[in-house]
Predict the 3D structure of the following.
Amino acid sequence: MAKSSSIGQDAPNAELDLLLELLRSGAYEEFRFSLLKRATRDGLERFVLDVAAPLSARIGNAWAAGTLQVYHDHLFSDAIQVTLRPLSEALCARACCSPRCPANNTAGAS
């Protein structure tokens, strides 16, 4: 189980505990792959709500408690960006194919 701190109490969650332990132990590629696998399986909204946000809070609590170093937080930030970027770009590309997309709205253009 993730180590908690007086700053916040982490709710029990075996998957988040495993992700935190992968990050703590330096298994960065496995950590990144686990994030990507979950995001691909669940979709962007569920991934952000169920994994990214609570994991971010858990990592902040562990950092505040001194059980993670600053570089762990930086690795987490990088992994989240690498995971979310292609998913959000795909959504934006799909939305921009829509006539309602501001990039495709040429009304009033000269």
